[in-house]
Predict the structure.
Amino acid sequence: MRTSDIARLFEAPGPFVSIYLATEGNVENAAQRVAVRWKSLRAELLGAGVPEGTLEAVDDERTEQVEVEGARTPHLTRSKPGGWSQPRYQHRAEVLWERNATEVAEMLTKMVDRVRPRFVAAAGDVRALELLREQSPKRVQALIEVVGGELGSIDEVLEEAERLAADTAEADTGALLDEFERERGQRDRAADGAEATFEALAMGQVRVLLVGNVRDDGQSAWFGEELGQVALNREDLIVQGTTPVEGRLVDVAVRAALGTGAEVRVLSPNTDARGPSGGLGAVLRYST
């Protein structure tokens, strides 16, 4: 999810509803099952006081699994030496593969431009994947990661994709912590601890907010009307001419980060010593 999409929520008047609905598509009558689940959940939300207009918005925006069905390739069998069947069928398969790859690449490009994913996991026949790369623009080619060949089921593909996602997240987090530790050691583009982090958030310096194992001891912070107006002390915002509102320290920090265009990285509870003091820190855009 793009952080810019979440940031808009802080400026919208609401009301809001957040839901999680399992929508697996690899079971019999998947669409009907999802519809039944949503109908039941919708009634529950309505009974809990969620406005009908909000639920209608969810009706329009429910995520759908996109499938592109292309022409089927002919079954290829090994012919006798000098035979003509294999080349003829191979040529026909190539034509169909190219046609299908074009359709898939067009749909994939639209999805990438809309979602802007970290990577695209792909599996299938080696030649079909080559054609998909060839038919895709460079910005999509750079994202494609092959997670296997012709795997037996979509479940196997998803399992491999989940492993890739976990490995990618771990590698990205490791690189970010290395950068944070280096900048902190140089006393340069890093904010360590709640006080330094809030000062950087108020100045719009934060590039990536690091949220680790923050102690849940009831510590709070304050925010104003503007998304960048944050402080640990209420009086610091009063002098800015705004009406301070109190919130959980982590929530206020995340709100300010998203509102000022920063990324948010949630760290594992067992993050090593490279993590921020007190569970809150930031990698900065520039040093002071």
